[in-house]
Amino acid sequence: MSFFPPDPVIPEPEETESSQPTWWQAPEDELPELLAVSELLAVTDHVAIALVGIDVHREGVQLRVERRLRRKGLPLTEWNELCGAFMGHMSYGGLVDVAGRLRFGVVLADGEKIVTDASPFFGGSDPMIEPKGHTLSRREQGGGGGGSTYSSADHLWLWPLPPAGPVELVMQWPTLGIDETRVKIDASMVPALAARARPYWPR
Where are the annotated segments for Disordered (predicted)? Predict the structure, then answer.
C-alpha cells in the first residue's frame, strides 16, 4: 500500500461557447453574397484608399476597404514615421494626433448618419446593449510591406441591413492629408442579396 493517498479526480472543465453580439461584426459562420463595388475613396502622393467590395449578410453588410502606401523617394526616417501613422501608431511627424485619425461613417437613404467612433471612449453607449439604430464598427485587418510599399485593410460592419436606397460612405484622415471625402453606393440589390446569404452549417 502506498504511503501517499491517490489524487482526487478532477472533472474536466465545462467551457461554454461564447457568441458575440450581431452588431459587433459580420458573422463568421455565414457565407455572404457579394455586391461588386470598386471605388477610389482618396489618393495622395503616398496613400491610396479604395472600397473594393461589399459582403451582404442576412442581418448587415460589410464594406471592405483597402489601404495602400508607397514610399516614393522619402528618406528612411520619414518613411518609417509615415508607416507608423498609416498603421495608427502615431501621427505623421511623430506626435500623437487623435483629431487627425482615420475615421469612417455612412449616410443611409433615410438620412441617418453613423460613425465608427460610437463607443464609450468617444461618448457612445454600452457596446453590450443592443443599439436602437444602426451601428458601424471598424475592424482593422492587419498589414504588411517592405522598404517601398505597405498595405492594410479595414472591414466596416453596418448593422442591421440599411433601408432601401443609396448608401454614402464618408471618410477622412487629416494626419495623412486626406480631407473629408464621400462616395455614393448603389445598394438597391442589398435586400435580394441578403435573402440569398446562407450559413456554412445548419442552425
Answer: 1-23
Full-model pTM? 0.84
Question: What's the whole-number mean pLDDT along residues 119-139?
Answer: 71
First CA to last CA distance, the chain: 54
Cβ-in-10-Å burial (0-12, 13-18, 19+) of 153 comes to: middle
Tens-digit pLDDT profile for residues 76-92? 999 999 998 888 766 66
Q: How far apart are CA 8 and CA 5, in angstroms?
A: 9
> Within a 13 Å sphere around the CA of 20, how many CA atoms are in the beta-carbon half?
9
Options 2.60.40, 3.90.1720, 1.10.490, 2.60.120; CATH of 31-199: 2.60.40
* Amino acid (one-letter) located at 65: V
Domain ranges of the chain: 31-199
Q: Which residues pair with 159 in a beta bridge?
A: 135
Question: In terms of DSSP H, where are the helices of 18-149?
Answer: 76-86
The neighbour count for residue 130, using CB atoms within 10 Å, is 12
DSSP conformation class of 127: T
Q: Are 127 and 147 contacting, i.e. CB atoms less than 8 angstroms apart?
A: no
